[in-house]
Amino acid sequence: MHRLRTCAARLRPITASQTARTLSQQRPAALTRTFQPNRHYTAPVAAEPFLNGTSSNYVEEMYYAWLENPKSVHKSWDIFFRNANAGAPPGTAYQSPPPLGTSLAGLSQVQSLIRGHHVAQLDPLGIMDADLDSCVPTDIITSSDKLGFYGLDESDLDKVFRLPTTTFIGGDESALPLREIIRRLEMAYCQHIGVEFMFINDLDQCQWIRQKFERPGVMHFTLEEKRTFEEFLQRKWSSEKRFGLEGCESLIPALKTIIDKSSENGVESVIMGMPHRGRLNVLANVIRKELEQIFCQFDSKLEAGSGDVKYHLGMYHRRINRVSDRNITLSLVANPSHLEAVNPVVQGKTKAEQFYCGDTDGNRVMSILLHGDAAFAGQGIVYETFHLSDLPSYTTHGTVHVVANNQIGFTTDPRMARSSPYPTDVARVVNAPIFHVNADDPEAVMYVCNVAAEWRATFHKDVVVDLVCYRRNGHNEMDEPMFTQPLMYKQIKKQKGVMQKYAEKLIAEGSVTRQEYEEEIAKYDKICEEAYTRSKDEKILHIKHWLDSPWPGFFTLDGQPKSMSCPSTGISEEELSQIGQVASSVPVEDFTIHGGLTRILKGRGEMIKNRTVDWALGEYMAFGSLLKEGIHVRLSGQDVERGTFSHRHHVLHDQNVDKRICIPMNHISPNQAPYTVCNSSLSEYGVLGFELGFAMASPNALILWEAQFGDFHNTAQCIIDQFICPGQAKWVRQNGIVLLLPHGMEGMGPEHSSARPERFLQMCNDDPDVFPKITEDFAVRQLYDCNWIVILMPFRKPLIMFTPKSLLRHPEARSSFDEMLPGTHFQRLIPDSGPAAANPAGVKRLIFCTGKIYYELTRERKARSMEDTIAICRMEQLSPFPFDLVKAETEKYPNADLVWCQEEHKNQGYYDYVKPRMRTTIDRVKPVWYAGRGPAAAPATGNKAAHQQELSRFLDNALNLDAFKDHA
């Protein structure tokens, strides 16, 4: 499947100058002088194969071997290195070598270009080429007639060659006949396992992998029997879509092996993500979910227990691992049909669990991600997730990736579905080793999974296991695959199942008897039947069985459900001042900040003296007060440390010492929670998914993702549509993720103007045509019933916040300390408090709006001396719609016509959402007029003059009392 090279496989031709650059990093000065970059020198004859067709690793290895024992290399290299170290001038270190004979160089010619993965027997069906190429590369030795490619002939096969220290095929032997060398290399790299690793530029890692696959006899062991879960489901629900594992049954022992070996290595918690194929089998036989709970999901009258299909659900289970005899927690994260969308979510949840338990190296918590071959190659989120794997604030210290390589995507042939040779080639971007294995060989599968788990434990880096398999039933159990893949499915119909094949092997070798095998099958079948009977009891169904991240104790207080209340979020003036002082200072000695930042901090200090805050300082107060209460705050996104608009500056950089930073927010209080602020890679889909997963792990944290500009969420839309908006409805999965989306029409063109609020409002679940019953706890009850919102609550919901751009420095966009003291609350709606409110009967127009247009309206109203005839009301919480407060305001101004004003175009923004709800609020007794830009396809004009004309036009419309009369 992957271009797995053998012990000495090298793909990239290199020049002597490249070899020189590699050696010069760690070699004696004399040798460095000999190998001069960008110069060509005559090298020893023995060196020519390496300098023209091999990676520099081999020459480097040989040099190390020569330093330890000059006799361990061929005489030509010994002379070359001696002369080089003695300071020989360029081009003179070489001397003619003795005849080839049994030299290391001759063996090296053989080793240098063997790539066994091209000819490994990976397809269980025997009809597909794993790398999509039927041609065997000319440099691969598949018969004696190819020996000539390396300057060898058949007479050399019985010559004995001394083995270099860079291979382990000899075991305890130091020399072997060439015929045996080739045989052992074939056994290691050309059977049911193909190993792709020589692109890794770390010698220790390459040697580690060689040792695992080249030592004779490393894969000799027997297996425990596998289960027959899929066969039971087939008998009971033959007409149900189950997306079963038939054809890839080895996935179960593969996952068990990874988990068992990881548990032995100290892992206590495994977070998993996978698409739907085989999910029920994994739940039953790997996580060990109660079978009756799975069978319940097949009963149509019980489907109401979840808002999604059974093969999308997640779960959480803690049990004893039988191999390590240790407790282990297994969590399978719920995932929609967007196959790879769960990848960053799993990584974020894993990072969070590592963070909360102090697991800085990933020794206790790890992730396993399962993939399909077509999705792994085709979906960009796979690359985005790999790209996070080594970033300091996002690494989970290694993930084991398992690809169920069906050799087809739905009905699409892999030759039409990818341009790369293997579906797993994307993993090479992070130097992850890739182990391709024939899934019909369970022993080979288990061996590579053991190696994969050990690799992760040793190097804390990603690794890929590619299970080359097939789908016995097509895309799902209702599919007819013969329509599109007749050859493949003719072969599949003839194919014995892996369990049958392996059982026959074990019986033939005497590992088990046929009676033992049949008794084991009957025993498990009985377990399934008994669970099926119990599943008919409706009492056993409870949604708690399908939570992938329970929050024990969060929803109750002293054993009782928490009250539906919204506590004050205000804090004392002393705390406000203290947090403000930290925000306006550098709490580290001998730390030099930028001169412009000095002015910013001084300005913050002046605001604190005046008891006022702007947006950036208000954010500081909010974060700082939560940290003091022990609530972790994590802010992630592109350029969040400074802030896109240079307003935040949560990370200070020493102007004189490279990489020396200070995060003042972590100096608020001795016992505070840690504050994590981290610039992300230039990814939205991956990073938002990661932060969503992080927010899943604990309700007692504030996790925020900020888009550089609000419209950047476009490329993360899948996470919003599939996880954030419907998460509670689909999986009863609460989440407190916060999206900060800079928004505002500043005359800068269609890009970076609009965060598309209309999209979020369209997905809100409150009914525009029903005026709700107003109760004492209406505000909090309304928030509980909706799908996304705001504030400190006894529950968690996502918050979508449209943040300002120009208002960050607007002189009127300020708040007083008085609005943040104890007893204050978030204001869902801010009514007019000027002359109009003092004489409501005289008000002719009541304008509702939100965002920065308020400041433009008030400026224009004042310029026209209309402050006593026009009232302007700000709607701070758009959804859930504040029916009660809007009703109070409209009743306060009985003689006023009603206008909704927005700067966004009429078919965008908020109008389509607020109009029907305002009409419902007033019993449709009067119209709700629109003032704003007309409909348009793009969010904004790219012409500054046109922008100003549009603004002037709709402001005049909003404040002109004669407007709309001809429509009345």
Q: How would you characterize this protein structure?
A:
It is built from 33 helices and 26 strands. It folds into four domains: 16-131 and 152-187, no CATH class; 229-546, Thiamin diphosphate (ThDP)-binding fold, Pyr/PP domains (Rossmann fold), CATH 3.40.50; 631-803, Rossmann fold (3-Layer(aba) Sandwich); 829-967, 3-Layer(aba) Sandwich (Rossmann fold), CATH 3.40.50. It has 968 residues and is α/β, with parallel strands linked by helices. The N and C termini lie far apart (72 Å). α1 crosses α4 (56-68), α21 packs across α23 (615-628) and α24 (685-697) runs parallel beside α25 (717-724). Mean pLDDT is 82; it is low at 1-55, 96-107, 109-114 and 222-242. Strands 3-9-10-8-7-4-6-5 form an eight-stranded mixed beta sheet, sandwiched between helices. Strands 17-14-18-19-20 form a five-stranded parallel beta sheet, with helices on both faces. Strands 22-24-23-25-26 form a five-stranded mixed beta sheet, sandwiched between helices. The radius of gyration is 34 Å and the shape is elongated. α30 links the parallel β23 (845-849) and β24 (870-875).
